[in-house]
């Protein structure tokens, strides 16, 4: 009886873990995730999130499933000297673990755009 119970639990866990989904999108400031989808994770792979920064300013994030050709490899503060960009990649292996944050509030977008316009005017002056 114990063997049958253990076999049933193992089969159930295998079925549950075999259907892990990750979020897949490019997340940009003000707009949030563009073309939000989900992808089915291949066995042995992980969901990944790569955040890209210019200095300390966040530019965008790339959320996707790792694949055998492009597996998730965690990396922090990788820099591209030519462009001055910094990349941070994190990996996870639970269902929807690379969940994108909610879209920013419209009021926050207005403040950001107003600030950006002010900087643009100052640079033109």
TrEMBL record:
GO cellular component labels: external side of plasma membrane; protein-containing complex
Pfam families (UniProt xref): UPAR_LY6
Keyword Isomerase applies: no
Signal peptide: 1-18
Keywords: Signal
Keyword Protein transport carried by entry: no
Top-level lineage group: Eukaryota
Domain spans labelled UPAR/Ly6: 19-100
Protein name: Lymphocyte antigen 6 complex locus protein G6c
Organism from which the protein derives: Tupaia chinensis
């Amino acid at each position: 009886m114990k063997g049958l119970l253990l076999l049933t639990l193992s089969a159930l866990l295998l079925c549950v873990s075999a259907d892990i989904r990750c979020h897949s999108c490019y997340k940009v400031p003000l707009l949030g995730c563009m073309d939000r989808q989900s992808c089915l994770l291949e066995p042995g792979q992980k969901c990944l999130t790569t955040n890209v920064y210019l200095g300390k300013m966040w530019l965008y994030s790339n959320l996707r499933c790792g694949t055998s050709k492009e597996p998730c490899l965690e990396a922090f503060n990788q820099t591209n000297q030519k462009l001055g960009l910094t990349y941070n990649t994190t990996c996870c292996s639970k269902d929807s673990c690379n969940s994108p944050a909610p879209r920013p509030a419209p009021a926050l977008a207005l403040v950001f755009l107003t600030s950006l316009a002010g900087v643009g005017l100052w640079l033109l002056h």
